[in-house]
Write a structure and sequence with these properties.
This protein is an alpha+beta fold. Helix content is 27%, strand content 12%. It is built from 4 helices and 7 strands, in the order E-H-H-H-H-E-E-E-E-E-E. A 3-stranded antiparallel β-sheet has the order 6-5-7, with no helix packed on it.
Length: 196
């Protein structure tokens, strides 16, 4: 199961901290960025990104038909986990996504059931996620870029808890790519290791 994405300042600091260490040591360049090195002969430590401490408000952005990006992929994955969405978590808010949100609104008694993922839907979804921390993953960064279609796309990032929603490939360095096009995917991350 893919996981809903949240961003962690701690994860970002750990990755940035590693990058500082790696730039001073060529011996660690082939290691995953999840690992840190120490001056002693101790084995490398892996940061523990606990989903139990996931933010209470995963959803905080209103979305509607035509929206795109990681926020939409997270909503799609959430709706799939709820058994209301059967498509791929593409990150594109289409009619299937809208219909699944209407079903969610009806399930939760939200009126009007208009297919817009607004503050009321966000609050209801966040309440459900508070009871399912295993549905949430933390990414190592919250960087985004605009692709050739003008869609906002999450930059490649490490994941704390499985395959994140919207991921399209695993890069050779262990990051997940969210590219909507195969051209250039993982180009600065060692190339594509596996398409998802």
């Amino acid at each position: 199961m893919k996981k809903i994405v949240v961003y962690s300042a701690i994860a970002l600091l750990l990755i940035v901290g590693y990058n500082s260490l790696a730039s001073n040591s060529t011996a660690t360049q082939s290691q995953s960025q999840y690992q840190t090195t120490s001056a002693s002969s101790q084995p490398a430590a892996t940061p523990n990104y606990s989903t139990q401490n996931a933010p209470a408000n995963v959803f905080s952005k209103s979305l509607s038909y035509g929206s795109s990006g990681t926020d939409v992929a997270n909503v799609q994955q959430f709706l799939a986990d709820e058994g209301l969405y059967y498509g791929k978590d593409t990150g594109i808010f289409d009619y299937s996504t809208e219909n699944a949100i209407v079903a969610f609104e009806q399930q939760q008694g939200i009126q009007p059931a208009n297919g817009i993922f607004g503050p009321t839907e966000e609050a209801s979804a966040n309440s459900i996620l508070a009871n399912h921390p295993d549905w949430v993953t933390t990414l190592s960064n919250s960087n985004e870029y605009q692709n050739v279609n003008g869609s906002t796309v999450q930059s490649p990032a490490y994941s704390s808890n499985g395959v994140p929603a919207g991921a399209s490939a695993v890069c050779a360095d262990g990051t997940y790519s969210f590219s909507m096009h195969r051209s250039g995917t993982c180009s600065h991350h060692g190339g594509v290791a596996e398409w998802l």
